[in-house]
């Protein structure tokens, strides 16, 4: 089955291509998500085994056309023989969620890897600020699981479901949840709190990017229009490294994924 123009462009850019086979599946997060474990007959790219690494999975639509959807690697075996992907089973199911709903062991998916941007925290920063809805939840958990001990983390979960209970506790972790319509204001309040903390610690001095312990990394993903508000809030924050922040629209209210 042809992958169309997108597939041709990825091949031209020398994307890694391989096929995954489903080993097992399991519902998680109260049945809101399905975790699918894959194996590969060949060696998987090393880039997939870093926090929040992602790959392009190819799904067939009802018309027979193949489309790509990006998914985070939610976990992997210590020997790198298998990888896990968590699919959010949203009600307005696109080709990816529909596939995950009914998939069984033995099924296969074609995969392309190009442009994956794993999360790497600046070692001089005080902590991380994370925001995401259900579609970004697997990436949020992957980032948290890869943080060094003692690193502070402020997490704001948005969307239709409260997933706070599915985030393992750790020292220095603050997790909050609020409806998507209030998330932008909640995020702004969170950043203002970090700005106040920073000004207090620096004696009300100006922004000092090189001073350790006074800045935060930011990673956010979710609905595209809401990410624009997040991007604006980060831009006006003294505490967050705006130029190094990762803020990405995963989906649109007007487009089913």
From TrEMBL:
Query: What region holds the SIP-like Rossmann fold domain?
Result: 127-253
Q: Where is this region: Disordered?
A: 195-215
Domain Siderophore-interacting FAD-binding per the UniProt entry, residue ranges: 53-111
InterPro entries for this protein: FNR_nucleotide-bd (IPR039261), SIP_FAD-bd (IPR013113), SIP_fam (IPR039374), SIP_rossman_dom (IPR007037)
- Sorted alphabetically, which Gene3D superfamilies does this protein's record hold? Nucleotide-binding domain of ferredoxin-NADP reductase (FNR) module, Translation factors
This protein's superkingdom? Bacteria
Instruction: Report what the protein is called.
Output: Siderophore-interacting protein
- The species this protein belongs to is Bifidobacterium mongoliense
């Amino acid at each position: 089955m042809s992958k169309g123009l997108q597939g041709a462009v990825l091949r031209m850019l020398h994307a890694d291509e391989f096929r995954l086979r489903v080993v097992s599946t399991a519902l998680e997060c109260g049945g809101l998500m399905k975790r699918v474990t894959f194996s590969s007959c060949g060696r998987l790219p090393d880039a997939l085994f870093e926090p929040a690494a992602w790959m392009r999975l190819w799904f067939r639509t009802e018309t027979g056309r193949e489309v790509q959807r990006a998914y985070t690697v939610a976990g992997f075996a210590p020997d790198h023989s298998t990888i896990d992907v968590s699919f959010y089973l949203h009600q307005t199911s696109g080709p990816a969620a529909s596939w995950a709903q009914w998939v069984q062991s033995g099924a296969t998916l074609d995969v392309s890897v190009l442009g994956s941007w794993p999360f790497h925290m600046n070692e001089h920063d005080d902590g991380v600020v994370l925001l995401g809805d259900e579609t970004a939840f697997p990436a949020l958990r992957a980032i948290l699981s890869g943080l060094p001990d003692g690193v502070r983390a402020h997490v704001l979960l948005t969307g239709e479901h409260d997933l706070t209970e599915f985030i393992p506790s750790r020292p220095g972790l603050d997790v909050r949840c609020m409806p998507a319509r209030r998330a932008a204001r909640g995020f702004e309040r969170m950043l203002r709190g970090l700005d106040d903390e920073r000004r207090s610690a620096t004696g009300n001095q100006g922004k000092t990017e090189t001073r350790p312990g006074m800045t935060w990394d930011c990673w956010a993903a979710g609905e595209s229009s809401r990410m624009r508000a997040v991007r604006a809030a980060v831009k006006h924050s003294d505490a967050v490294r705006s130029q190094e922040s990762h803020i990405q629209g995963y989906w649109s209210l007007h487009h089913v994924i």
